[in-house]
Write a structure and sequence with these properties.
The protein is of the alpha+beta class. The protein has 4 helices and 7 strands, in the order ααβααββββββ. The longest helix is centred in the first third of the chain and has 19 residues.
Length: 173
């Protein structure tokens, strides 16, 4: 439980994001098959970005927390329109293994001028990765881990409908 979120935000727009993503997030967490059209992917991407925003409230590293704090107002404004900034990408992957509640992040580049911020978290079988560019260009230009090729699917910006679960899951290794 975070004490940094005001009651109005927590019970308002944040609660709405949670409620609209839940019908899609739960099947992904439990490994059930589901077709994810544009609207489902958009709702999941907003939810993933919200979760990453909240994770940053717990961050002790001031450089990381400061970089995310500068991005937060842009998210607040964009979510009101039901979208995310163009400099954000969100990916999903299926995870099979014992580590079902993991979270990690890294700031790419110098803390005073980061290139990108990558956050990855797992809930059940669902792994989400949110990447935010700080250089003002699309995240697709950020070099991603080659071990993810064929294992993840970008849900923001949406590229088209896809069916969950993907065939090549991530493992604890």
């Amino acid at each position: 439980t975070l004490k940094d979120v005001c009651v109005e935000c927590n019970s308002g727009w944040m609660s709405k994001i949670e409620a609209t993503a839940k019908p899609f997030a739960l099947p992904l967490m439990t490994g059930r098959s589901i077709a994810l059209a544009f609207e489902a992917q958009r709702k999941l991407a907003l939810w993933a970005y919200l979760k990453c925003s909240l994770f940053q409230n717990m961050e002790r590293d001031t450089a990381v927390k400061g970089a995310w704090a500068r991005a937060y107002p842009v998210f607040y404004e964009s979510q009101a329109a039901g979208t995310l900034p163009a400099i954000v990408s969100v990916f999903v992957a299926r995870h099979v293994g014992g580590f079902v509640g993991q979270y990690q992040h890294r700031l790419l580049g110098a803390p005073s001028r980061p290139a990108a911020f990558i956050q990855t978290f797992t809930a059940g079988e669902l792994t989400l990765q949110v990447i935010r560019s700080y250089l003002g260009h699309r995240v697709l230009e950020v070099e991603r881990d080659p071990r993810l090729v064929g294992r993840d699917h970008r849900i923001w910006p949406v590229t088209g409908m896809f069916t969950w679960p993907p065939g090549n899951p991530l493992s604890d290794e």
